[in-house]
Amino acid sequence: MRHGKYGFIVGFLSLPLAIYAVFVISPFLQAIYYSFTNWSGLSSDLQMVGFDNYRKLLDDDVFWHALRNNLVLLLVLPLVTLGMGLFFAFMLNVGGRRKGAVVSGVRGSSLYKVVYFFPQVLSIAIVALVFQFAYNPNSGALNSFLSGIGLDSVQPNWLGDPSLALWCVMAVMVWSNVGFYVVLFSAAMSTIPRGFYEAALLDGANRFTTFFRITLPLLWDTVQTGWVYMGILALDAFAVVQIMTVGPGGPDYSTEVLTWFVYTKGIRDGQAGYATALGVALLIVTMIFATVVMRLGRRERLEF
């Protein structure tokens, strides 16, 4: 039995590993190879240019604009989205104090879960398009609302203002993703024994204490995974930027992100070799982010 165990494992894993190597590892290696060439993406003729693409990348102001915007998204987007997701999930599951139920959510919590999750059933293209109309400075819902409450003098040019455009994009990304984390954290909270909360309430703990002493430590693994996922989403943001903003990455590159910059260089400008160098830079930033989050967030589940 022991003799045949390794043969079974090799036979079981060889095909999935081969498929993974061909369809996942191989494209990464090809991209790294093309990043050292002057490939246009339209012709099979290419020459090796060494580190020229990477030197060009370091001297490119647009690259630094895009990297700075991605880093702002990377810091703010997970913090706001996960924070709101945790707060809403806590209130919907254990934040209520209804009569006859020791531990329960606020009144109407089942309806709120459906409402929060609703943006998840919409395509991100539809969401971005709807908010593009809402942000319209002349006929959009936001400026119409400001006019309706007597603030006619306050009419921001939301997506046309370089100081506001990135925050407008970020607000849409938060709105479209909070619901998913409300449901995810709600599912994780359902696994926490109710006795923990009941004991804490008998000891006089309030919502603040039960959240930071019971809920957050027991959900830490889920929060950490969500942080990595939101970080990767923040490093993408391609669809929202492409649909909502105008011009090359918004006004004065205010919403330029690395994925959009890769697209414009590789598809529009015919600089596929340079675009793959940008893609390799994005890969490095993503791996650094994931490593930092996993190492800084490492702790025992019950440690706080």
Beta-strand percent range: under 5%
Roughly what percent helix?
55-70%
Shape: flat
Residue ranges: pLDDT <50 for 5 or more in a row? Answer: none
> What would the average pLDDT be, to the nearest integer?
85
Strand segment tally = 0
Which quaternary structure do these chains form?
single chain
SS class: mainly alpha
Give the count of helical stretches: 13
Major β-sheet profile: none
| Strand/helix succession | HHHHHHHHHHHHH
Taking all Cα atoms into account, the compactness measure Rg is: 24 Å
Amino- and carboxy-terminal Cα gap: 45 Å
Short description:
The protein is mainly α and 304 residues long.
Which labels suit this protein?
13 helices, single chain, mainly alpha, 304 residues, 0% strand
Describe the secondary structure blueprint for this structure:
Elements: H1 2-34, H2 52-58, H3 61-93, H4 109-117, H5 124-134, H6 141-148, H7 165-189, H8 194-202, H9 207-218, H10 220-234, H11 238-244, H12 258-268, H13 272-296
